[in-house]
Amino acid sequence: MGKESIRRSFDRAFKEEAVRLVTDGGRRVSEVARELGIHENLLHKWKSKLTEDGDSAFPGKGRLSPDQEELRRLRKENTDLREERDILKKAVSIFSSRRK
Q1: Range of 29's domain?
Q2: What mean pLDDT is predicted for residues 1-10?
Q3: Would you state the pLDDT for residue 62?
Q4: How many whole angstroms separate alpha carbon 19 and alpha carbon 45?
Q5: Could you tell me if residue 3 is inside a domain?
Q6: Where is 12: in which H helix or E strand?
Q7: Helix, strand, coil distribution of the chain in percent, nearest 5
Q8: Burial level of 7, CB count in 10 A (0-12/13-18/19+)?
């Protein structure tokens, strides 16, 4: 049988410290990644994410970034408004048919 892959997770502090070792410490990504036992690509990804998103990077399990949270809220609002519109259409239809 093949090796089972175990997916590790890293908290925000670990990711920030790993990136800090590269950015502030002036060390190479490959060196830091090897010391931490992670793949270089993962560290590059964390570095990019932190550069792009700043404080909202790495929101954690179950949490959304501000943009994702706004999108979720707007989609829900859109669904609610469509339901309200459909109810009003049915009500207008019912009241219009009673007047005839």
Answers
A1: 9-62
A2: 68
A3: 62
A4: 10
A5: no
A6: helix 12-23
A7: 70, 0, 30
A8: exposed
Say if residue 77 is in the same domain as residue 96. Answer: yes
Run of H or E including 85: helix 66-99
The yes-or-no verdict on residue 81 having pLDDT over 90 is yes
Contact 50, 60 (CB under 8 A): no
Residue 5 pLDDT greater than 70, yes or no: no
pLDDT of 76 = 95
Q: What is the pTM of this model?
A: 0.54
Q: What is the pLDDT of residues 41-61, one digit of tens each?
A: 999 998 888 887 777 677 666
Based on the structure, what is the number of domains in the chain? 2
Listed residue (38, 18, 16, 39) closest to 27, CA to CA: 18
Instruction: Please state, as a whole number, how many other Cβ atoms lie within 10 Å of the Cβ of residue 43.
Output: 21
The tokens for 56 are 């909202």
Tell me how far apart the alpha carbons of residues 42 and 12 are, in angstroms, rounded to a whole number: 14
